Amino acid sequence: MKKWTGMLLLWIACCLSWHAQAQRQTEYNRKGDEALQRKDYRDAKMWFEEGVFAECDRYSIDRLTTIWLEDETMHVSMRTVMNKCLNCLTEWATERDTFAIDKLILYYSRGIGTAENPVTADYWRRQLETVRRQNRGEDEAPTATPTSATPMRFFFGYQASLLAPFGIRVGGIVGRLGWYIAAQSNFSFQGHTATCRTADGRFIIEGQSGYYGYMDRKQANVLMASVGLMIRTLPGIYTSVGAGYWQRDLIRQYGTADNAGNIYQRAWAKDLDASEKGLKVDLGATYLLPRGRYYVTGECTVLNFRYLYPALGVGMIF
Predict the structure, then answer these.
(1) φ and ψ at 58, to 5 degrees?
(2) HEC letters along the chain
(3) Which keywords does the record carry (predicted)?
(4) Does the structural domain 153-317 have CATH classification 2.40.37.10?
(5) Percent of the chain, pLDDT > 70?
(6) Residue 69: is its pLDDT beyond 50?
(7) How confident is the prediction for the chain on average, in pLDDT?
(8) Rounded Cα distance, 72 and 45, in Å
(9) What are the pLDDT digits (tens) for 262-277?
(10) Could you state, in order of their start, the residue ranges of all structural domains in the chain?
(11) What Rg, from alpha-carbon coordinates, does the chain have?
């Protein structure tokens, strides 16, 4: 008897717990709908996002999508929750959920919770057609099988820093991850025929005899390159870290004089004491502009863990 009584109490407790949870689900959707009827989108968003963050509630996702489409002024405050909706839908879509796939087509077509991406939207259209055909018992043609879940998008842009104002940045992003290759220069390529030392305050040409002197002209040749990885940390924002090589050659002009002090030859020498090279480390963030066709990037470049230079860039996404 005690055994059956215990089982009955356990069953009642489970039912009460389920009933309380169901009531809670009904509450946030009910109050969200009431706010929608009043056109109070902020209040409705507050109730529906509770369902999304708690358990990826489908009805809440559908209602939040409606709010996004009806009121553009809500977009900024909804970026985080719509990115969560996108993650929920993507997880369901991998299990051939047609509701989720249909929503993903809309999200990538209109840039909801992510950058607008017509290529990815077309991919999910093909996936939806494939699932529907298979549900009808039709065989899919082998050529229609996609090779990857999300196609990679490539970008190309201009990158500049105080030390090297001319540069390019290329790379690709797929889902939450990406990569890049960057190269920068100051477009100075002054050659030299000798090397010199200036550390002790004296200008000395190595291996040079006779009369010579510094002409008070100098030029720096700067070249740097790096590769790195990118990861999406916020909707439309990728944080990046990279490493590479940098080199700065300081070239000084000097003149050779005869016994009378007349300069008869001018040449350039590389200053070994002022020239440097070594490790380059990049830390930055890339923001995909609305519609996902352009980007801006801000970066902090650390050279030999001694020098710090800011860098900025803009570019196009294909």
Answers:
(1) -65, -45
(2) CHHHHHHHHHHHHHHHHHHHHHHHHHHHHHHHHHHHHCCCHHHHHHHHHHHHHHHCCHHHHHHHHHHHHHCHHHHHHHHHHHHHHHHHHHHHHCCCCHHHHHHHHHHHHHCCCCCCCHHHHHHHHHHHHHHHHHHCCCCCCHHHCCCCCCCCEEEEEEEEECCCCEEEEEEEEECCEEEEEEEEECCCCCCCCEEEECCCCCCEECCCCCEEEEEEEEEEEEEEEEEEEEEEEECCEEEEEEEEEEEEEEEEEEEEECCCCCEEEEEEEEECCCCEEEEEEEEEEEEECCCCCEEEEEEEEEECCCEEEEEEEEEEEC
(3) Signal
(4) no
(5) 87
(6) yes
(7) 86
(8) 13
(9) 888 999 999 999 999 9
(10) 23-144, 153-317
(11) 31
Angle between helix 41-55 and 58-70 (nearest 10):
150
What average pLDDT score do residues 225-241 get?
A: 94
**How high is the pLDDT of residue 200?**
82
Residue 13: Cβ within 10 Å count:
10
Six-digit token pair at 314? 């803009």
In whole angstroms, what separates CA 29 from the centre of its chain?
Answer: 34
Task: Provide the whole-model pTM.
Answer: 0.54
